[in-house]
Amino acid sequence: MITLYDTTLRDGTQREGLTLSVGDKIRIAQRLDLLGIHYIEGGFPGSNPKDAEFFKRVRDIQFENAKITAFGPTCRKGASAETDPGLLALLETGCDTLCIFGKAWDLHVTEALRATLAENVRMVHDSVAFLKAAGKQVFFDAEHFFDGYANDASYAIEVCQAAASAGADAIVLCDTNGGMMPHQVLSAVTAMSLVIDAPLGIHAHNDTGCAVANSLLAVEAGCVQVQGTANGYGERAGNADLLTIIPSLVLKMGKECITTEQLKLLTEVSHFIAETANLSPYPHQPYVGASAFAHKGGVHASAAAKLPEAYEHIDPASVGNLARVVVSELAGRASLTMKAKEMGIDLTGDAETVAEVLDSIKQLEHEGYSFETADGSLELMLRKKLGTYEPLFRLESFRCIMEKREDGKVATEATIKIHVGGHRYIATAEGNGPVNALDKALRIAMGRFYPHLEDFELVDYKVRVLEEKKGTAAVTRVLIETSDGEKSWGTVGVSENIIEASWDALVDGVEHGLAHPPIQRDEAPNTA
Predict the structure, then answer these.
(1) Same CATH topology for 3-276 and 394-515?
(2) Any bridge partners for residue 137, and if so which?
(3) What does the DSSP 8-state code read for residue 76?
């Protein structure tokens, strides 16, 4: 059994630009608990009020699988463990499991800590013994272990043995600088497993891009605890990505850590944590990324449809992900037919339409369009070709006015004139920019006919200037992502005028969304 130790809420928040509120940390902890994580490190209670507040609030929450863990240093040099403020702060959290870190690299002991090697060993031993005497489960993080082992293996081993002899429940070997290569980790862990009479763990950072590989090799060499963060968040290049490690342990190495049902939550948990951290999910992340099982090439996509196991290293559903066909100028007939089927459009046997649409896609992408992330626009184009498209309104005109005033303030106003249901409507709105003003005006004009429109939100807006050498006369591609709170879809617009490109993408987003209203969850199920 491999135990999983998540440190997203502490080590992960050291990532540049990542900040979590106490409420965010609690919500993330609850999702990690559902995933089956065994230990969730809540923070460093002696370092800041936010972490202290987290431990106070989390006491009243019942977790099904996880034990909330507090993190802190060993006692200070020359100080007694029994009176050390940091260790007492750990006990005050009320956590049954505690993790303390101490120096395992002689260089750090003498130069950073300014202590003798013997005193550092004493600090480690006494700190672990004190917390164990208080009835706690104690993990010891051997900080900078691999650098210390490379510099003076006997001393690094002595530090770990001091923690083990004091009763540490696990000795966690840390590649704190993230500079180790897989063969170095394998060699050191193998050696440690022969001399340390306590379970071993691994805590890897990703500065060489080897954190996941190092963690998996450490397990192969004898580690039974793996530490990491969700999505690999962390300082510098990040920590080992626990959400890549978990499926690799279960599906590739046959190691027991979470159930197959919990594994199906992996993608959902990854994206939830990213959104809570106000970070975009990385589409190319192994196992859980939106592109992890995407097929773009026409021949490849066609073959994948016939024999998916030959082109997908696992069943995407096993980690809660989906296989996708990405349609672009590289698409073949099979790719387009498969993509249309995802959208509920059957093109089987309609070779003429497929050929026409493929020609249109290739021409439009030559002009600057991109449909890889614009499924909404692609579906509308398909329906237009099939004659099943019915426009929700007819545009008469729109106008945008931007005014920069003497006081430095900028005002933007948009007016649209549209025809809906046989009537002409004019709507004007102000916004923080022309696209925002147009969006608001369109909602005003159409809202009386389509109340669901108020649920739509523009969650992403990207502008790409094509043929930059043309300067301000260059063609602009606008990609918009719209969400109704349950699902999201992408649309695209291209024009030499950025406002026109934005309008086209905006309208596609509205029309696609209104054509796919959300499921009414309070309706009685159809049991016929």
Answers:
(1) no
(2) 97
(3) P
Q: Write down the architecture of domain 394-515 according to CATH.
A: 2-Layer Sandwich (3.30)
Amino acid residing at 43: G
pTM for this model (two decimals):
0.70
| Cα–Cα distance measured from residue 48 to residue 493, given in angstroms and rounded to the nearest whole number | 47
Angstrom CA distances, 61 to 10, 31, 43, 135, stand at 19, 13, 16, 21
Q: At residue 468, what is the residue type?
A: E
- Render each residue's pLDDT in the chain as its tens digit; 528 residues: 999 999 999 999 999 989 999 989 999 999 999 999 999 999 999 778 889 999 999 999 999 999 999 999 999 999 999 999 999 999 999 999 999 999 999 999 999 999 999 999 999 999 999 999 999 999 999 999 999 999 999 999 999 999 999 999 999 999 999 999 999 999 999 999 999 999 999 999 999 999 999 999 999 999 999 999 999 999 999 999 999 999 999 999 999 999 999 999 999 899 889 878 878 788 899 999 978 887 665 445 555 555 666 667 898 889 988 776 655 444 456 667 777 777 788 877 778 888 888 788 778 877 878 776 688 888 888 888 888 888 888 999 999 999 888 888 888 999 999 998 888 999 999 998 899 999 999 999 888 888 888 889 888 888 888 765 555 567 888 988 888 877 888 899 999 889 999 999 999 999 999 888 765 434 333 332
Q: Look up residue 473 and give its two tokens.
A: 């006369």
3-state secondary structure at position 399: strand
The domains of the chain are located at 3-276, 294-367, 394-515
**Of 356, 364, 363, 362, which is closest to residue 382 (Cα–Cα)?**
356
Quick check: 105 and 147 in contact, CB under 8 A?
A: yes
64: nearest Cα among 28, 89, 94, 34: 34
CATH architecture, range 3-276: Alpha-Beta Barrel (3.20)
Distance from C-alpha of 515 to C-alpha of 389, rounded to nearest angstrom? 10
**Neighbour count for residue 359 (Cβ, 10 Å):** 10
